[in-house]
Amino acid sequence: MTDLSAFPIATRWPAKHPDRLQLYSFPTPNGVKVSIMLEETGLPYEAHAVNIGKDESWTSEFLSLNPNGKIPAILDPNGPGGRPLALFESGAILVYLAEKTGKFLPADAAGRYETLQWVTWQMAGLGPMFGQLGFFHKFAGAAYEDKRPRERYAKESARLIRVLETRLEGRDWIMGDDYTIADIASLGWVRNLIGFYGAGELVAYDELKNVPAWLARGLDRPAVQRGLEIPPRS
Predict the structure, then answer these.
(1) What is the DSSP secondary structure assignment for residue 197, as one 8-state letter?
(2) Domain spans of the chain?
(3) What pTM was computed for the model?
(4) What is 109-224's CATH number, 3.40.50.300, 3.40.50.720, 1.20.1050.10, 1.10.580.10?
(5) Per-residue three-class SS string for 119-161
(6) Does domain 9-103 have CATH number 3.40.30.10?
(7) What is d(CA 88, CA 73) in angstroms, rounded to the nearest whole number?
(8) Mind listing the pLDDT tens digit for each residue in 15-31?
(9) How high does pLDDT run on average in the chain?
(10) For the chain, what is the total number of helices (H) and then of strands (E)?
């Protein structure tokens, strides 16, 4: 049996199946990227809920795996060379899982780099801007009298979602006919923007046609539906 005792995180979140990939996450837009990917690939894994509402990602056990204190993170007992691999940052994990399974990342160099540019675009722009808009529209920032921060992030979020709208013109998926990690990276964030954040009106979401159709196609995938609920919040 695989021994994970060298990893402190396994003391707080013990593995029932230590031979499987271990996911430490919470069903946020960043967290569900990895659970969706795992569901899509069919890799055996075990999910552990790291409750960010209770600051569990700042415990010493979690920080031993991800010193940045953010979900998601994984521990793959069957990493490169047969050695365990601990990995954090959702974009890096998506690339790793795509390469490990040979799925959802084009094999040809041009397609691979084009896909990675859209994953990077999500990581650097779409996610951070949508997250800030959520803070200033739904969470504590909504109480600020100065509405300029919300307006700034609403404007940038509206611009970014129109970049995606343009990209999807004539395409089912970001890379065309093929569903890839570029789609997996962005689906949860767009869903959150118009759902949980309730910011659709701020970015004039109803004016779009390609993004809503793309989101509907993504949410219709059984693996996406499962991944959005993993790990359960309870």
Answers:
(1) S
(2) 9-103, 109-224
(3) 0.97
(4) 1.20.1050.10
(5) HHHHHHHHHHHHHHHHHHHCCHHHHCCCCHHHHHHHHHHHHHH
(6) yes
(7) 4
(8) 999 999 999 999 999 99
(9) 97
(10) 10, 4
